[in-house]
């Protein structure tokens, strides 16, 4: 069953007006009465990012920000501030329920293809020098060393 909300849609900073948002098998927004504005429908894998935006410097009203595969940006501004979190939660839920047909195959291919393991090996080599520790570097000091260290620290304080 689709969750339904009333929200304004802004596409790439262009106001589309108020409409009905339905989040079910697909993302669907239908304008309320404006004949010149088209309805919007999208599969969830096309929505590569969704987030709650409450920063007035980014957008003057609390909204749900969505970025599409194409790079287009949508903002959903519901009638009430409380609905922002509800829309976001429903987007998260529906995105998880509808990951797309190739999502599992893509993840498996990335994890197990030769190029992926070569990238991991190269990354580990670059980071190797950063994570090497000298023998005893992370050992706990003996009690006598702790007291001596505390004395040295107190002597350094001016």
Question: What does this entry look like structurally?
Answer:
37% of the residues lie in helices and 29% in strands. β6 and β7 (73-78) form a beta hairpin. It is built from 4 helices and 7 strands. The protein has a 7-stranded antiparallel beta sheet, with helices on one face. It is α+β, with helices and mostly antiparallel strands and 158 residues long. It has a domain at 3-97: PH-domain like (Roll), CATH 2.30.29.
What order do the helices and strands come in, and which of them pair?
Blueprint: E1 3-11, E2 14-23, E3 27-31, E4 40-42, E5 47-53, E6 63-68, E7 73-78, H1 82-97, H2 103-112, H3 114-131, H4 143-156
Q: Notable features of this structure?
A:
single chain, 158 residues, PH-domain like, 7-stranded antiparallel sheet, 4 helices, 37% helix, 29% strand, elongated, disordered C terminus
Number of helices: 4
Class by SSE composition: alpha+beta
Report the CATH topology name of the domain at 3-97: PH-domain like
Percent in strands: 25-35%
What Rg, in angstroms, do the CA atoms define? 26 Å
Please write the string of helix (H) and strand (E) elements. EEEEEEEHHHH
What are the segments in which pLDDT stays under 50 over at least 5 consecutive residues? 104-115, 151-158
CATH top level of the domain at 3-97?
Mainly Beta
Look at the structure and name the CATH superfamily of the domain at 3-97.
Pleckstrin-homology domain (PH domain)/Phosphotyrosine-binding domain (PTB)
Overall average pLDDT = 79
| Proportion of residues in helical segments | 25-40%
């Amino acid at each position: 069953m689709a969750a339904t909300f009333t929200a304004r849609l802004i596409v790439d900073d262009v106001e589309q007006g108020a409409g009905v948002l339905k989040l079910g098998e697909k993302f669907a927004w239908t304008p309320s009465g404006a004949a010149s504005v088209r309805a919007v429908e999208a599969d969830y894998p096309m929505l590569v990012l969704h987030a709650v935006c409450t920063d007035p410097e980014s957008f003057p009203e609390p909204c749900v920000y969505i970025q599409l595969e194409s790079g287009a940006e949508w903002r959903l501004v519901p009638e009430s501030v409380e609905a922002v979190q509800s829309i976001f939660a429903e987007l998260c839920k529906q995105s998880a329920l509808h990951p797309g047909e190739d999502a599992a195959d893509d993840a498996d291919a990335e994890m197990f293809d030769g190029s992926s393991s070569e990238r991991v090996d190269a990354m580990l080599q670059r980071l190797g020098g950063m994570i090497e520790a000298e023998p005893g570097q992370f050992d706990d000091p003996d009690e006598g060393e702790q007291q001596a260290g505390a004395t040295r620290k107190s002597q350094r304080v001016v």
